[in-house]
Amino acid sequence: MTSTVVVGGFFGDEGKGKIISYLAIKDNPKIIVRGGAGPNAGHTIRDGDKVYKVRMLPSGFLNKNAKVMVGPGVVVNPDVLLKEIQDFGATGRSFVDKNCGIIEEKHLTSDSKGELKEKIGSTGSGTGPANADRAMRVLKMAKEVDVLSSLIIDVPDEVNSAISQKENVLVEGTQGTFLSLWHGTYPFVTSKDVTASGICADVGLGPKNVDEVIVVFKAYVTRVGTGPLANELSLEEAEKKGWSEFGTVTGRQRRAADFDFDLARRAIMLNSATQISITKLDVLFPACAGKTSYAEISDEAKSFIENIEDKLKTPVTIIGTGPAINDVIDRRI
Ligand code: IMP
Ligand code: MG
Predict the structure, then answer these.
(1) Neighbour-count burial for 68-94, b at 16+ CB within 10 Å, e otherwise
(2) How many whole angstroms from 11 Cα to the centroid of ligand 2?
């Protein structure tokens, strides 16, 4: 197996960042490449007592042997990217494609007010307005920005060369299936397609060069911002269950609901998933916290997993049991 694509199955914040950082270390890919919208994404990664919040840099940056790259389909905020590279010690191994679009001050300004902010609950990161400018063919490209010159690389060429040499490549998505501009709950969506096909297009990976598609679902559903959420719990109910969470980028409280099989089934279809990852199993079943072997979890937790496999006809291979990178049950091995 050489190429693995990881995407979110619900509304983002499924815990992809942690799963990707686990895979980045465990599978030791040569390249970790990020697709998706832009710095509207936020991943939280915990390594020992260090907590990283990443918005632009690929979540796999903790593997120091890998080159981390941002694909041409992603819009980049140079300030955010350069700060993350610096703060997270990823200098010399972080790259952006020459054709990444650039978020400028005017995009931040227009994203922080008006329709997008009020009606859609946009993250205010400038991502949507920059993608609109890209569609209008007026957006600045990374190759025109001096501060990025030392990071510029041909990402599709790097990715496809590595695959043809049978090297492992890890492709990371952002947001989640139902925030896709094509397949989500329009208009309450992000400004790109963020299903596996869209993520692959973002990095220049053709459909025949994908070996595994891992769709990540949290053990319950959350949604930040506006838009439909079936069977939404009141904030009180969510708090009682321990499901109350706050956004990585915006700090807003996330809305919550039970695991949704209808959405999950559709996400499996839209992404042609070959594997499922379930995160935060320990939040539903506290006795699972920190467990690393399937044999060790309760019968109740096992039935939760097996019911998902049964209903979705796809194996659950990677299970998150806590916030740390190695709080994982890896059933591939
Ligand atoms: P925008 O992409 O910032 O315009 O936001 C559009 C909608 O997608 C809003 O409801 C955001 O809260 C949501 N959204 C965008 N990116 C993410 C993400 O990475 N995780 C969760 N929600 C997101
Ligand atoms: Mg997030």
Answers:
(1) bbbbbbbbbbbebbbebbeebebeebb
(2) 9
Planar angle of CA 54, 35, 181, nearest 5 degrees = 105
Centre of ligand 2 to C-alpha 164, Å, is 32
State pTM to two decimals: 0.97
> Terminus-to-terminus CA distance in the chain, angstroms?
14
**Helix, strand, or coil here: 157?**
helix
Domains of the chain: 3-330 (3.40.440.10)
- Report CA-CA distances (Å) from 261 to 112, 231, 269, 287: 34, 12, 12, 24
> In the structure encoding, which two tokens stand for residue 92, read together?
């010399």
For 133-170, how does the pLDDT look when each residue is reduced to its tens digit (9 = 90+)? 999 999 999 999 999 999 999 999 999 999 999 999 99
Q: Is 77 in the pocket of ligand 1 (CB under 6 A)?
A: no
Residue entry with tokens 């991502």 = 127
43 in catalytic set: yes
